Amino acid sequence: MAAITAADVNKLRTMTGAGMMDCKKALVEADGDFEAARDILRKHGQKIADKRAENETSEGLVLVSVSEDGTQGKLVALACETESVAKVANFRELAQQILDTAVRIDAGTKEDILAAKASDGLSIQEHVTDLMGKIGEKLEVTYATLTAEKVASYVHSDSKKGVLVGLKNVGSADAAAVGRDVAMQIVAMKPIAVDKDGVDATIAEREIEVGKEQARTEGKPEAMLEKIAQGKLNKFYKDNTLLNQEFVKDNSMTIAQLLDSKSKGMTVSDFKRVAIGA
């Protein structure tokens, strides 16, 4: 059996970022073979991932990037189990590496990012798994990308909620400023669609049925149920679709009116909202 020195352990630790004891155990098991030891540490990370697969990830970090011309945005969320891990340097560095990779390869999906190779030859997925082994927690990656005439972004002060919002018919308006206001609205009010046309038909049907049942329970005449339910559905659209919501900074206007006041005809083409633990 090869003699494992402190220098060997330190070398593997420098290579992998794993703890001293984990590095020593891996080198002993690998009989001093550094590549084999790295594989052992990676397998340890996969075991942690498998073991903690059902655990909740309610902490983490959201990062965004908008292209220089303002037409494309990318958002990455790296979630973990505890707040203390979310503050660790190598966790935050991994989140940034994931975002940088998304931008570099112009990723369409999360899977594209995880399969991409980092500069050390390992895939991003392998880096995620390695960090799970080091910190002993489940990590989850969420990714969103958006292309529009102009894309604005916002990350909430807790770094756990982020939005990309696409604007069209911007004209001479300050897209970044108005887009930020709209993005903050999306974080706070959680709209389910841009407007009522974007609401899934099954959701609308469910709201109609619930409205009818509520009216029936209240003793309303059967002939009035459809009209009452339609009224409740319109209220649902007002509360839950972005353009129809009251602007949180000035409830005298809707988001549609806010946008139109900044540039005639300006509206939202799409948005992406990501929240860790919510």
From TrEMBL:
One of its GO terms (molecular function) is translation elongation factor activity. It is found in: Cytoplasm. CDD domains: UBA_EF-Ts. Residues 74-277 form the Translation elongation factor EFTs/EF1B dimerisation domain. The keyword Methyltransferase does not apply. It comes from the Bacteria. NCBIfam families: tsf. Associates with the EF-Tu.GDP complex and induces the exchange of GDP to GTP. It remains bound to the aminoacyl-tRNA.EF-Tu.GTP complex up to the GTP hydrolysis stage on the ribosome. Belongs to the EF-Ts family. This is Elongation factor Ts. It comes from Hymenobacter antarcticus. The lineage of its organism: Bacteria, Pseudomonadati, Bacteroidota, Cytophagia, Cytophagales. The gene is tsf.
